[in-house]
Design a protein that fits this description.
Elements: H1 9-19, E1 22-25, H2 28-34, H3 46-56, E2 64-68, H4 80-92, H5 94-99, E3 107-108, H6 124-135, E4 139-145, E5 162-168, H7 177-187, E6 192-196, H8 199-209, E7 214-217, H9 221-230, H10 258-263, E8 264-267
Parallel strand pairs: 1-2, 2-3, 4-5, 4-6, 5-8, 6-7
Helix pairs in contact: 1-6, 2-3, 3-8, 7-8
Keywords: Transferase
Pfam families: GT-D
Protein name: SP_1767 family glycosyltransferase
Length: about 270
C-alpha cells in the first residue's frame, strides 16, 4: 500500500496562515471521480477527472497547498467506522493508488474535518481556533451550494469583517465552472474566498490562485462545527441545511434568515 507524507491539521493551517496559501482538498469523492465513478453531488466527467488527477499529482507551493486525508499513519486515532471506511477505500483503489504519481508532501484534507471521526476530540477546539484565524478581520466571500448555508445559526464566521455569498448549484457545479470563476473574479477581489463546492472547488482554487486570489476549499466545515458545538459523537443530521455525508439533501426545512439573504450577492442556477 502506498503511504503518503501528509502534514497534520496544525502544520497545514500554519502553512496556510504563513503563506496566505490557497487550498485544494482531495478526499474519497475525488478519487472516485478520477477512477471513473460518479458521486452523489457530481456526475462523472472525463475532463473533470483528468484535471483532478493532474492537480493531485502537482506538488504544493506556498501559493497552493494540495491536501489529502491524513489516513496513511496512526489510523488508531480514528473511530472504527472511519478506520473501516478507509481500509475498504484503499482495498478498492489499490491499483489506482499505485499508478498515481504522488507529490512528496500534502497538506491535510482534515483541516475542515477536525472533530467527528477522531476518538480524542479535545484537539478540535485548537483546530477551530486556528481555522478562524484565517478569516479573522477579513472580508470573506463564501461560494457554496444552495443547501449549504454555511455559518447560518452558528458563530463559525463571527470573526470575519464582512460576509458575502455566491450561491451555486448544489449538484454538478462543474457544469458552471467558468460562470462561477467569473463571478468570483468580480466579487472576490481583495477578499478571502472560501469555496464549498465538492470537486469543483479544487479546480477553482487551482485556477484563481494563479491570478493572486486566496481561495480556500473548505467543504464540510459547517457540519463539523455544528457537531463540535453540540458535543456529538455520531454524525447527526442538521434539520435546516446540508449535512456532511447526508448526500441527498432530503427533509431540509429552510428557516428564513434575513442576514443570510442579505449576504447573497449572486445566484448561479
Amino acid at each position: 500500500m502506498v503511504t503518503l507524507n501528509v502534514l497534520t491539521i496544525t502544520q497545514s493551517l500554519s502553512f496556510i496562515l504563513r503563506h496566505h496559501a490557497s487550498v485544494a482538498r482531495f478526499g474519497d469523492g475525488e478519487i472516485d471521480l478520477i477512477a471513473g465513478a460518479s458521486i452523489p453531488y457530481q456526475d462523472y466527467d472525463p475532463t473533470l477527472a483528468a484535471r483532478l488527477r493532474t492537480l493531485l499529482e502537482t506538488p504544493s507551493t506556498p501559493q497552493l497547498l494540495i491536501c489529502m486525508p491524513d489516513v496513511f499513519h496512526h489510523t488508531e486515532r480514528y473511530n472504527q467506522f472511519a478506520q473501516d471506511f478507509w481500509q475498504a477505500h484503499f482495498a478498492h483503489y489499490e491499483k489506482l493508488y499505485q499508478e498515481i504519481q504522488w507529490a512528496p508532501v500534502y497538506g491535510s484534507t482534515f483541516i475542515s474535518r477536525p472533530y467527528i471521526d477522531l476518538l480524542d476530540k479535545t484537539p478540535a477546539t485548537a483546530a477551530f481556533g486556528q481555522l478562524k484565524q484565517l478569516w479573522a478581520h477579513r472580508d470573506v466571500l463564501l461560494v457554496e451550494g444552495a443547501t449549504s448555508r454555511s455559518g447560518v445559526g452558528n458563530d463559525l464566521f463571527a470573526d470575519a469583517q464582512t460576509i458575502t455569498r455566491i450561491i451555486c448549484p448544489a449538484k454538478n457545479a462543474y457544469a458552471k465552472l467558468e460562470v462561477i470563476e467569473a463571478a468570483i473574479r468580480t466579487y472576490g477581489q481583495d477578499k478571502l474566498v472560501i469555496v464549498m463546492l465538492g470537486p469543483t472547488a479544487k479546480l477553482i482554487a487551482a485556477d484563481l490562485s494563479q491570478v493572486g486570489m486566496q481561495i480556500i476549499d473548505l467543504g464540510h466545515i459547517d457540519s463539523e462545527y455544528e457537531w463540535y458545538q453540540m458535543g456529538a459523537t455520531t454524525k447527526v443530521k442538521l434539520p435546516h441545511k446540508h449535512t456532511a455525508e447526508f448526500n441527498y439533501d432530503t427533509d431540509i426545512t429552510y428557516e428564513t434568515n434575513q442576514d443570510y439573504d442579505n449576504q447573497i450577492i449572486k445566484r448561479i442556477q
